[in-house]
Amino acid sequence: MSGGAFLPLWPPQASAYAAQVDWLVIGFTALMVLFIAPVFVALGLFIYRYRRGRVADRGHRPSSDLRIELAWVLLPFVGALLLFGFSARLFLEARQPPAGALEIDVVARQWMWKFQHPGGQREINALHVPRGRPVRLRMISEDVIHSLYVPALRLKQDVLPGRYTELWFQADVAGDWPGYCAEFCGTDHAGMLLRLLVQEPADYARWLDAAGSPGDLASQGAGLFRQLGCSGCHESERAPALAGLYGREVALADGGSVRADDAYLRDSLLLPAKQVVAGYPPIMPTYANLLDEAAIQRLLAYLRSLAERAPREARP
Fold this sequence. Notes:
Blueprint: H1 16-49, H2 66-93, E1 102-109, E2 112-116, E3 122-124, E4 126-130, E5 135-141, E6 146-150, E7 155-159, E8 165-169, E9 175-181, E10 193-199, H3 201-211, H4 217-227, H5 231-234, E11 249-251, E12 257-259, H6 262-270, H7 293-305
Parallel strand pairs: 1-5, 4-10
Antiparallel strand pairs: 1-2, 2-3, 5-8, 6-7, 6-9, 9-10, 11-12
């Protein structure tokens, strides 16, 4: 059964991870029933047996059975530990994307989802992915807090303004799966829907060709880099070299240091005076009013593409 317009009572599974999450929910529910049901059964029996007007021995004779008491304490404890270990493994697995995952940039805004593929293909409210390949989503919001939720994957991740969050998955079942915004984001929140279109690898390749591309994200970012005049400073002595910068530690003018990740590079574009690089004057202008999140993602793709290039010699 593939996804439809309405969320079924028990959503179908589109990945092996979703099946594991279902088993976790089933196990937790079974454990709760196992230890709660006897309490209510005993409660009903006692209410009936010791009801008013019935002859019964109501004396409070002291009695205990250590075996029953230990079992009542230890069995739920061991069951809870097993569930904790299983859920912790799933939690860590959901936050450690494998190497070589297909990276797709996501921008959320009222009331749509925008996706950018590495080859430059763009989509709105639909996401095509190949079946059986890990996909890593790098997400940010342009306005308020959103939350990307695809029930068939059993995954949900908040999308925040001014901060990157990530989500990865591997869809193992081809189909058209519905997705939603799971955070109330405004008057048209209920209409902020998306479709996850899982295709066979050959079909996905054909879709990429049919969608066309103005160039991959890194190439688009390189053009934007020169269009904005960034090369005038960063390819001279007036600003830090960018080749090999991504992922390295950067010394700051205040004596501290920061890792050059996506968040730092985004802040450097929009808030250049926030963390000034040691040895350089704070002369970089802000691009807050010139760039939207999609353009920033293209610039970041270009800067990430420079990570393998050898940096220029260290400057004083």
